[in-house]
Amino acid sequence: MSKVTAVEIPFININDENVKLIAWVVGEGDVVHEGQNIAEIETSKAMVELLSPATGTIHLKVQAGEEIRVSSVVAYIGDQNSPDLDTSSREFLLVSRSVVTVPEAIGPSGTRFSNKALELIQSRQIPLSAFAGTSMIREQDVLDYIKSPSGDFNAQNLLHSALNGISTSGVTFPANFSNFLNKDSGCMEQAFLDRLRNDAERIGNMESVDKCNLYRAHGADIGEGTFIGKGTVIVAPRIQIGDRVQIGQNGSIILRERFAAGALSSFREGLNVRGATAIFGQNIFAGSRIQIGGGGHADPWALLVVGDNVYLGNDLFINICRPVLIGKEVFLTQRAILVTHNIGHSVLEGNENTFAPIVLEDFSQVGMNSTIYAGARIGQSSILGSNSYLISAIPNGKLAMGVPAQVIRDAARSIDRPKQLQIAETMIRQFHELLSLKGTAVSPIQSFPFMNFDVFHGKKKYQIGFAESASPAGPDFWAGDENVLWTFESSGAANPSHVTEMNLLAKKLNGSSGVFVDSSREFLRKRGIRLEPGPWRYQMGLI
């Protein structure tokens, strides 16, 4: 006896006896999973998704485009060998006639909830605000929330339905990506949002301290030391800004769902953002006159996620008609253009019409004046050369250039240990020269017990050295107020408490901070060696 689940048209709207099945998004004989979107249905008031009530092989019984009476069966889900089902047969057992539809209930900030999701939320007494800033919530989303209240689960789809179907492999999302799970974080009062829209100029021209306090008073989660420049206004139902974030003057951030920026991120003047959700991680450095949004920014898929330690150059244009995902430590340099859609002449006349996301995986780089087209993807540690036009994908670790861009070689060359030692010793000499040219007194470079030199600034003495293996020198050697040891291999033994160890290969810092330590760290950062833990930003020092 075959167990079969019937998929029927649900009762969606009291005024509708018939609905239109706009399109099947699965094909005859496909394997579908419970909760998967299988069709689009148009009622007199909205278009909704029809979700699969079971897992199995689907057999379609009606054609797309037909007007269908409510409660009619439009498909069956059974095993692979039941293409011709006979409901009168004794071998046929109908085990379910239920179907899940996309929700009718609307919560804070326009979030939609399925009936089952609402039932579960009410039974567990979860505030609807826990899901504010999210497009659509289904039963499984609520179950995930209950199981992992700390946010340690695959939060991408819960955050935004636009991520459905996009591979996030190779992309490290920022920590604030899942902060929406904090039900009390950053939800703005609706009356204040209305006030912002009607009085944007006056509020934008307030002094930063007053502006930040005003936002906080009406629900925004804004950290200490944050600066919002004159003429800049942020309008979003959810605002989450970390400590010591800098947003320059004459900016305009208007989003339908959520704006988040992690600690120590910095945006210069003229930041313009439009869309649904824009999330920036920690320690972002963004230049001037960056435009995010463009055509299609009102679409429900208008999502931007930017990982930690990303560089965004001046005069960028990022179209987010479809999602743009940028991993950690990505370099997106000056005047680059990212477009997620193309509208030209009629698609029925053979002209191209593309709507697709763009993904820049961790450690990737985009050269100046380059264009990245809808659907393109840059793999981890890959480089798109300047003045290039990318229309496809670059594999991990490759350099691509040209119009259209083609892979020409590996992005990085292989380096053995003798070459690494040579580079490290050269960096010590370069740091010595830079400090001297900046007017700081330095001793000659010594070679014992390893390559090192002293630095004198004000009434303080600093020491720096490089040793391949970090075997601690004797306590009599380290005599500076701050002492820095560059190394390739941590010894595992504790260095003296006044020595800060910087492992150049592991990119790890162990020890205290200070003016000279920070100057050394900044010197390394400019050579691509960004040390953890973070976030960290160079504030002041000797270089």
Question: What is the structure about, briefly put?
Answer:
This protein is of the alpha/beta class. It folds into 3 domains: 2-101, OB fold (Dihydrolipoamide Acetyltransferase, E2P) (Beta Barrel); 190-410, Hexapeptide repeat proteins (UDP N-Acetylglucosamine Acyltransferase, domain 1); 417-525. It is built from 8 helices and 46 strands.
| Unreliably modeled segments | 83-106, 148-157
DSSP, total strands: 46
**Shape call:** elongated
State mean pLDDT (0 to 100 scale).
84
Let me know the CATH homologous superfamily of the largest domain.
Hexapeptide repeat proteins
Question: Would you spell out the secondary-structure blueprint of this structure?
Answer:
Layout: E1 2-8, E2 18-24, E3 31-32, E4 37-42, E5 47-51, E6 56-60, E7 67-69, E8 73-78, E9 92-96, E10 100-101, E11 105-106, E12 112-113, H1 115-123, E13 136-137, H2 139-147, H3 156-159, H4 190-198, H5 200-204, H6 208-217, E14 221-222, E15 227-228, E16 233-235, E17 239-241, E18 246-247, E19 252-261, E20 266-267, E21 272-280, E22 285-286, E23 291-293, E24 303-306, E25 311-312, E26 317-319, E27 324-326, E28 331-332, E29 337-338, E30 341-342, E31 354-355, E32 358-360, E33 365-366, E34 371-372, E35 377-378, E36 383-384, E37 389-390, E38 393-394, E39 398-402, E40 405-410, H7 417-437, E41 441-442, E42 451-457, E43 460-469, E44 482-489, E45 499-503, E46 508-510, H8 515-525
Parallel strand pairs: 1-9, 12-13, 14-17, 15-18, 16-19, 17-19, 18-20, 19-21, 20-22, 21-23, 21-24, 22-25, 23-26, 24-27, 25-28, 26-29, 27-32, 28-33, 29-34, 32-35, 33-36, 34-37, 35-38, 36-39, 43-44, 44-45
Antiparallel strand pairs: 1-8, 2-4, 2-7, 3-6, 4-5, 5-10, 6-8, 11-12, 30-31, 39-40, 41-42, 42-43, 45-46
